[in-house]
Amino acid sequence: MKAFRYGVLTFLALVFVSPLVFMVTTSFKSRTESGQTPPSLVPDNPTLAAYQQVLNAADTPVFRWFLNSMVAATLNSLLVVTTAALAAYALARMEFRGRNVVFGLIVATLFVPPVILVIPSFEIVGRLFWLDTLTAIIVPTAANAFGVFFLRQFFIGLPKEVEESASLDGANQWQVFWKIVLPLSRPALATLALLAFLTNWNDFLWPVYVLFSPENQTLQAGLSTLQYANAVRYNLLMTGAVVASVPVLLLYVFAQRFIIEGVSRSGIKG
C-alpha cells in the first residue's frame, strides 16, 4: 500500500514537473529544432542563442521589463501587507459599532469579478495622471480584501493573554500591535506577501491597459509581444517563460515553510 502511494505521488510529480522541464529544454534549442514535430525533450545541440536574442534585442528590453515587474510586485506586496494588517487587527481586536458589517462588506467584494473594475479603475488612474507609470500597477490593488480576511482569521487565533499582559505592563494598542502581534504573525505576513507578489507579478490584463511605452511594460505584458511578433519562435517564447518563472520558483522555495505554517494556522476560528 505504501509503495502504491509513493508510485501515485511520483507519477503526479512527473505530470506537474514535465511542462517545466520541457519549457527549460526548449529554451536551449535552435529555432529549427524547437519547431520540430514531434518535439524532442532534450536538445541535440544546446545553444544560448534564444537567451541572447531575447535579452539583447532593442525592441524587447526583457531585462527592463524584469526590473519593472520586480519593483512593482515588491512595492505592491508591501502595501498589501501594510493595509491588510492594520485593517485586520482593527476588525479582529477592536470593539466598535458595525465591525461585523464592515467585515462582511469587505468579504463581499471578493465575489465581484475583477474585470468589472477595469474601466472605473482606468478612469481613476487617468485622473490621477498615473497612466503609463508603475504607480498604476502598484497602488490600485493595495487594498486587498483577501488579505484582510486572511490576516483577521490569523489574528483571531492568537492568544489574547499575551496582548493583555503587554497592556498591563503599560503598552498602548499600537505597541501591542507592532511589538507583539506582528512578530507572532510572521508566517501569515510572509504568506500574504508572497501571494500578493505572485498576483502582481503574473498580472497581464491591467498592465496592458495602463502601460503604453515599451520601456514601462512589465514582464508578463512585454513577453506577449514575443508571441505576436514571433508566433513560431517557440525557443524565444520558452526563454521568456523561463525568465518569468525563475523568480517565482526561487521565492516559493525560500518561503514555502512560512506558506505552509501561515495557511495551516489561519482560519482556525471564524
UniProtKB/TrEMBL annotation:
GO biological process: one example: transmembrane transport
Subcellular location: Cell membrane
Domain (ABC transmembrane type-1): residue spans on this chain: 66-255
Gene3D superfamilies, A to Z: MetI-like
Transmembrane segments: 65-89, 101-122, 128-151, 232-255
Pfam families in alphabetical order: BPD_transp_1
GO cellular component: plasma membrane
Membrane topology listed for this record: Multi-pass membrane protein
Keyword flag Membrane: yes
PANTHER family registered for this protein in UniProt: ABC TRANSPORTER PERMEASE PROTEIN MG189-RELATED, ABC TRANSPORTER PERMEASE PROTEIN MG189-RELATED-RELATED
Record family assignment: Belongs to the binding-protein-dependent transport system permease family.
Protein name: ABC transporter, permease protein 2 (Cluster 1, maltose/g3p/polyamine/iron)
Species in which this protein is naturally found: uncultured Nocardioides sp
Lineage: Bacteria, Bacillati, Actinomycetota, Actinomycetes, Propionibacteriales
